[in-house]
Write a structure and sequence with these properties.
alpha+beta, Immunoglobulin-like, repeat, flat, seven-stranded mixed sheet, C2_dom, four-stranded antiparallel sheet, 3 domains
């Protein structure tokens, strides 16, 4: 996920237990964060204490780093603080950060539990992404009557932008192109993040130097001027003209006026939207699962089979499904997941199918929650005959068909294919992916077993953009990982599955954004209260 996505949680409680004899409770909320891959909880922080209320709205907020691809478990303990240090436990709630971000408008209400036989009231959580100023500026400048620096011909001017740092030093943040042989250059418009220009501080000095380009790199200084983001942004209504001054000339010559002027021709600001903006605006992630039932996996009843589940351990297929599904389901409001198998002979007539519903219901292939998918998967293993070939295209086209029905950005589809990787319909699959790359969908492929997965690597398109019959994929929508890279010898399955989920899901936010951007879809604003 984008590094540095910070989410601010605001906490309120309603109808808390009243533990005090003489007045109402004095609540404080303590947040604990679960250490990844373990069952240990660490205190992260606490709100202020609010005296004498059962419906507190806390001012002190929790700011957490947010990663879409990780399960970030939180525990909120509500206690009533007594004046001599003792405290009463008023209840607790467990919630994943993704559930709060993924809930409507980033608001989640949960019952507090943990005091036997008592109703403990509720906790309300509001998640907001902290703006680390994601605005992007586009501006264009020109200059007039700059000093002539070249012996033959006129100057070859370019601009250098610097932002000022807290300590008064300057950091270069942009260079324009060189316009050859003119004292009245017009530079091309350029874009720059506001962060880069002024670190989000609108009144901080932006210094601009004007140089005359020389081939040998010893560019001549023409002059400089200073401004700020705020001053530049006023130019949306009128041209702003800056005098270019050369301090050395100013000292020497009494009659010196300036070394020319620079005019800001245009200035506009756009917001860069983030994954969280779309999720908060109501974009739903729809999760579909496709599982490889080809004979190359081995007979499910044999311990050597990739589908073999011992009484003590889930199969590789079930583990991968659970790891990825448990995170995705926080962002899917109905928690209903269509689940298919491919490459098997299906009862009653033993026809080969490449997209049979695991729950055996053609009308409604959706299973309730990841548990429902696992159940149907185990059920199917008992009823179908593993066969072949391994065709991906039918199930990709099926999800693409659904994705094509709603392209306004309110729905985004993620297809998880779990396979032993020996693919038979490479050409059709490439064609299907290239077509799907213009739709609101992503494909995750988890390869299980010992095969060489070269074909999968090609589909992943990270190195070389995928193409089919001369058509190139509009965007990279496939993420492939081999399951074996995540099975560690120490046997800490929880940790290794968390790593697997993290790597498969890491590209989804970027892939969703690239779809929205190419379609110019802006996140729907969360309705004001």
């Amino acid at each position: 996920s984008v590094p540095g996505t910070k989410v601010e949680l605001t906490v309120s409680c309603r109808n808390l237990l009243d533990m005090d004899t003489f007045s109402k409770s004095d609540p404080v909320v303590v947040l604990f964060v679960q250490v990844s891959g373990s069952s240990e909880w660490k205190e992260f922080g606490r709100t202020e204490v609010i005296d004498n209320t059962l419906n507190p709205d806390f001012v002190r907020k929790f700011v957490l780093d947010y990663y879409f691809e990780e399960k970030q478990n939180l525990r909120f303990d509500v206690v009533s603080q007594h004046f001599f240090g003792a405290q009463d436990f008023l209840g607790q709630a467990f919630v994943a950060l993704g559930e709060v971000v993924g809930s409507q408008r980033g608001r989640l209400e949960r019952p507090l539990t943990g005091v036997p036989g008592k109703r403990c009231g509720t906790i309300l959580l509001l998640a907001e992404e902290l703006s680390n100023c994601r605005d992007i500026v586009t501006m264009q400048l020109c200059a007039n009557k700059l000093d002539k620096k070249d012996f033959f011909g006129k100057s070859d001017p370019f601009l250098v932008f610097y932002r000022s740092n807290e300590d008064g030093t300057f950091t270069i943040c942009h260079k324009t192109e060189v316009v050859k042989n003119t004292l009245n250059p017009v530079w091309q418009p350029f874009t720059i993040p506001v962060r880069a220009l002024c670190n989000g501080d609108y009144d901080r000095t932006v210094k601009i130097d004007v140089y005359d380009w020389d081939r040998d790199g010893s560019h001549d200084f023409i002059g400089e001027f200073a401004t700020s983001y705020r001053e530049l942004s006023r130019a949306q209504s009128q041209f702003t003209v800056y005098e270019v001054l050369n301090p050395r000339k100013k000292c020497k010559k009494k009659k010196y006026v300036n070394s020319g002027t620079v005019t800001l021709l245009s200035f506009s600001v756009e917001s860069e939207f983030t994954f969280v903006d779309y999720i908060r605006g109501g974009t739903q992630l729809n999760f579909t699962v496709a599982i490889d039932f080809t004979a190359s996996n081995g007979l499910p009843s044999q311990p050597t089979s990739l589908h073999y589940a011992s009484p003590y351990q889930l199969s590789a297929y079930a583990l991968a499904l659970k790891a990825v599904g448990e995170i995705i389901q926080d962002y899917d409001s109905d928690k209903l997941f269509p689940a298919y198998g491919f490459g098997a002979k299906v009862p009653p007539d033993g026809k080969i199918s490449h997209q049979f519903p695991l729950n055996n219901n053609v009308e409604n292939p959706s299973c309730a929650g990841i548990e429902g998918v696992l159940e149907s998967y185990l059920q199917s293993l008992r009823t179908v005959q593993l066969y072949g070939p391994t065709n991906f295209a039918p199930v990709i086209n099926q999800v693409a068909g659904t994705a094509a029905q709603v392209t306004d950005g309110s729905q985004y589809h993620v297809l998880l294919i779990i396979t032993d990787g020996v693919i038979s319909d490479m050409l059709q699959t490439k064609e299907a992916i290239v077509t799907a790359s213009s739709l609101p969908m992503s494909i995750i492929i988890v390869g299980v077993g010992p095969a060489e997965f070269e074909a999968m690597e090609e589909l992943d398109g990270d190195e070389v953009r995928l193409s089919s019959r001369g058509r190139y994929a509009e965007r990279d929508i496939v993420q492939f990982v081999p399951f074996r890279d995540y099975v560690d010898d120490s046997g800490n399955q929880v940790l290794s599955m968390a790593r697997l989920a993290k790597d498969v899901l890491a590209e989804i936010p970027e892939q969703l954004l690239s779809y929205m951007k190419t379609r110019d879809i802006k996140p729907r604003r969360a309705d004001p209260e």
